[in-house]
């Protein structure tokens, strides 16, 4: 080696692994990398893609380091995004590499999309003209590049005709750039004429948009009040400033209708991002977001980790929705992280909901968030009239689950040629099957959960781990034949009851496990919107966002279902879900009705829904949270310790508890066996850490984990900051 060869550079690279910090690699001579560059590096025997990180490396001897294998030809991950990764890692106590991994989910996209070889017309003329050749030349006279097969197809000739012309120099090769996944939306395409309230709300959003700085605005408006129309104005304003926009939606099933609405307003669809995208499409979207070609993305929570080049607005629609919480590897709430992302990028964020989370309402009342209200539905559409059916007074017929009152209203609705929705948040036929002879209950072998009967499929299924078995004819315990009995209802069973009452009605059952998957689901939702079903029986999937113009009756089969599960948010969740689902009724001005079957008509949640007085509900709920020191007035973290055996899990959890540092403002509850004590064969114990609003929860947990026992054997510890689930 020559004496004056340039010194090797060493850079930190964050690899998609549960490592606490970036690893250091050598940059080969002649390779250019900068913070944010995506590179391929050796890791043990493998090679992985990682991101060059910021922290300067101390004087290490780069010659001893393994070199970066390749720097991808890809726009670097921006500084804001890198700070976002660091922030989430610190907040959720996740290894930064695991957060970075969420950005690196489209590996093929790190290389530029290939240009396609095409043909373009030259000045030259063919030696002789045929009818086929004439058609080709006419097609190609637009002066644009065509692909060989595309041109042949358009001209209705075989590709050999094209080859012949090319051989004569009539065409020459021209490279065609990759196609954009979506056309550019036009902010001025078809702005809605807003109503007075809407205009006031939109003006507030435009104002914060014009400033361009960080702000949070909560659009708090009843279902059908035009929240979407209003935040579209914020989207238009951000686009006018040349910024990229991210719209988060909680459900994939909702996106189709949303995309079309967006297209009506902006003349082109936004790019979609969710787990159901085809891999090729995923990579194209990722790449085009990184390059800035895609201006607006509508996506699920994971879209927060797209490598936006110049993001200037995030909208979180249905901000209260539990689907925003990820409870896998990195536990985060996308609504909260959207606010963090906007803060880091110093741009506005808009949260929209008909039933905002208590957290957001408190933030608004304490002026951390701006709040704009839309108290009335658009046009003549009135909110449905809501009544409770006291199931103690109007019980269903033997073996049934629908009160005669509800059945009567379904009949009337049918008579008027309008649609009914019966809502029950439980998939399958029955949540429990038991043997009438010996009392045997069918339980999942790997989870502490009953097996749910799915009668259409003839199976017993575990809703936690997916375990399934054929429903037997004889009891596996006592051998008695034909004595198995289904306990309680799921949507399939309600459908059976409905068909018994209304054999001639067009009835459809919708749940997330529908055969045919998301495609079928979309078709069914469209069909319902067009009026092609009379009675819809569905889970929460049909509760959200959809617009069914002819739906005038919503019956909630078991309004009490979510109330008794030990979750501090049970009342809030039930209130939100019941408001959402009854909000499906009467979206187009017809008189509509929502009916809640309940055994607790005096419960504050039922009263709030029936009276329509959501303010009273929020006031009461907020007061109770404050009294109990629950979020947002206090902080919570869950720690879930799981292991292959119960003893291991319990011992580890107890030792961890003993490692809790002394603190006056934070205390630890548990460990206690989790309500779901076994999932997928793993035994689970939970600790709950509760602190004041200003407590250093992360510092406390870090000290506790560091002082706790080493992870041994099958033991796993998961930290869940701001937990939504307590199971
Ligand atoms: P939300 O998001 O609050 O549920 P939407 O934005 O979906 O409400 O509006 C409900 C319905 O009313 C939609 O069909 C929407 O197109 C229509 N709508 C709302 N505001 C307007 C408006 N200003 N002009 C025309 N249609 C409107
Ligand atoms: Zn299971």
Automatic annotation (TrEMBL):
One of its GO terms (molecular function) is hydrolase activity. Its EC number is 5.6.2.4. It is an enzyme of class 5 (isomerase). Its cofactor is Zn(2+). One of its GO terms (cellular component) is primosome complex. It catalyses: ATP + H2O = ADP + phosphate + H(+); Couples ATP hydrolysis with the unwinding of duplex DNA by translocating in the 3'-5' direction. Zn(2+) 2 binds at residues 444, 447, 462, 465. One of its GO terms (biological process) is DNA replication initiation. It holds the Pfam family PriA_3primeBD. Binds 2 zinc ions per subunit. InterPro entries: DEAD/DEAH_box_helicase_dom (IPR011545), Helicase_ATP-bd (IPR014001), Helicase_C-like (IPR001650), P-loop_NTPase (IPR027417), PriA (IPR005259), PriA_3primeBD (IPR041222), PriA_3primeBD_sf (IPR042115), PriA_C (IPR041236). Zn(2+) 1 binds at residues 435, 438, 475, 478. SMART domains: DEXDc (SM00487), HELICc (SM00490). It comes from the Bacteria. Residues 208-374 form the Helicase ATP-binding domain. Keywords: ATP-binding, DNA replication, DNA-binding, Helicase, Hydrolase, Isomerase, Metal-binding, Nucleotide-binding, Primosome, Zinc. Belongs to the helicase family. PriA subfamily. Component of the replication restart primosome. Initiates the restart of stalled replication forks, which reloads the replicative helicase on sites other than the origin of replication. Recognizes and binds to abandoned replication forks and remodels them to uncover a helicase loading site. Promotes assembly of the primosome at these replication forks. This is Replication restart protein PriA. It comes from Allomesorhizobium camelthorni.
């Amino acid at each position: 080696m020559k004496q004056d060869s340039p010194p090797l550079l060493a850079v930190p690279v964050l690899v998609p692994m549960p490592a606490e910090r970036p690893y250091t690699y050598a940059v080969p001579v002649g390779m250019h990398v900068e913070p944010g560059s995506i590179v391929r590096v050796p890791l043990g025997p493998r090679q992985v893609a990682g991101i060059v990180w910021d922290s300067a490396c101390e004087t290490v001897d780069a010659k001893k380091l393994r070199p970066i294998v390749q720097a991808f030809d890809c726009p670097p991950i921006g500084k804001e995004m890198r700070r976002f990764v660091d922030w989430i890692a610190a907040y959720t106590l996740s290894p930064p590499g695991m957060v970075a991994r969420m950005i690196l989910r489209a590996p093929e996209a790190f290389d530029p999309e290939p240009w396609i070889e095409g043909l373009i017309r030259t000045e030259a003329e063919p030696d002789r003209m045929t009818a086929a050749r004439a058609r080709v030349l006419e097609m190609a006279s637009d002066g644009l590049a065509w692909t060989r097969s595309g041109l042949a197809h358009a001209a209705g000739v075989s590709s050999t005709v094209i080859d012949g012309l090319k051989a004569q120099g009539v065409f020459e090769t021209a490279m065609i750039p990759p196609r954009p996944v979506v056309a550019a939306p036009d902010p001025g395409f078809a702005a809605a004429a807003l109503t007075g309230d809407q205009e006031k709300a939109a003006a507030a959003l435009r104002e914060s948009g014009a400033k361009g700085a960080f702000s949070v605005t909560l659009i708090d408006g009843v279902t059908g009040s035009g929240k979407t129309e209003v935040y579209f104005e914020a989207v238009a304003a951000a686009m006018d400033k040349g910024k990229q926009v991210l719209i988060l939606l909680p459900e994939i099933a909702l996106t189709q209708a949303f995309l079309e609405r967006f297209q009506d307003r902006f003349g082109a669809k936004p790019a979609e991002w969710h787990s159901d995208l085809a891999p090729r499409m995923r990579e194209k979207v990722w790449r085009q977001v990184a390059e800035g070609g895609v201006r607006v993305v509508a996506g699920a929570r994971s879209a927060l980790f797209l490598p936006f080049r110049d993001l200037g607005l995030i909208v979180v629609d249905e901000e209260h929705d539990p689907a925003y919480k990820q409870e896998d590897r990195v536990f985060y709430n996308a609504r909260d992280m959207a606010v963090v992302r906007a803060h880091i990028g110093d741009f506005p964020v808009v949260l929209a909901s008909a039933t905002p989370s208590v957290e957001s309402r408190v933030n608004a009342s304490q002026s951390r968030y701006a709040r704009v209200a839309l108290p009335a539905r658009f046009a003549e559409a009135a909110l449905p009239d809501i009544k409770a059916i006291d199931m103690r007074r109007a019980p269903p017929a033997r073996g049934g689950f629908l009160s005669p009152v509800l059945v009567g209203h379904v009949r009337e609705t049918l008579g008027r040629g309008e649609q009914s929705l019966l809502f029950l948040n439980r998939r399958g036929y029955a949540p429990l099957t038991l043997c009438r002879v010996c009392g045997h209950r069918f339980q999942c072998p790997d989870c502490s959960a009953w097996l749910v009967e799915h009668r259409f499929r003839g199976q017993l299924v575990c809703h936690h781990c997916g375990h399934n078995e054929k429903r037997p004819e004889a009891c596996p315990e006592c051998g008695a034949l034909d004595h198995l009995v289904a306990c309680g209802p799921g949507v399939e069973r309600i459908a059976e009851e409905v068909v018994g009452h209304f054999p001639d009605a067009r009835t459809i059952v919708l749940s997330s496990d529908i055969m045919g998957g998301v495609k079928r689901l979309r078709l069914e939702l469209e069909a319902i919107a067009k009026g092609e079903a009379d009675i819809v029986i569905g889970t929460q999937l049909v509760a959200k966002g959809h617009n069914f113009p002819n739906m005038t009756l919503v019956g909630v089969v078991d309004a009490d279902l979510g109330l008794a599960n030990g979750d501090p948010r049970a009342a809030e969740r039930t209130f939100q879900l019941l408001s959402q689902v009854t909000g499906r009724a009467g979206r187009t001005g017809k008189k509509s009705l929502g009916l809640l079957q309940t055994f607790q008509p005096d419960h504050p949640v039922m009263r709030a829904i029936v009276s329509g007085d959501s303010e009273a509900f929020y006031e009461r709920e907020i007061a109770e949270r404050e009294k109990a020191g629950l979020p947002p007035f206090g902080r919570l973290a869950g720690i879930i310790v799981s292991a292959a055996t119960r003893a291991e899990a319990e011992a580890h959890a107890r030792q961890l508890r003993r490692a809790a540092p002394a603190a006056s403002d934070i205390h630890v509850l548990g460990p206690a066996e989790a309500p779901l004590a076994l999932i997928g064969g793993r035994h689970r114990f939970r600790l709950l850490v509760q602190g004041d609003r200003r407590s250093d929860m992360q510092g406390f947990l870090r000290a506790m984990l560091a002082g706790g026992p080493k992870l041994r054997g099958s033991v796993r510890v998961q930290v869940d900051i701001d937990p939504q689930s307590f199971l």
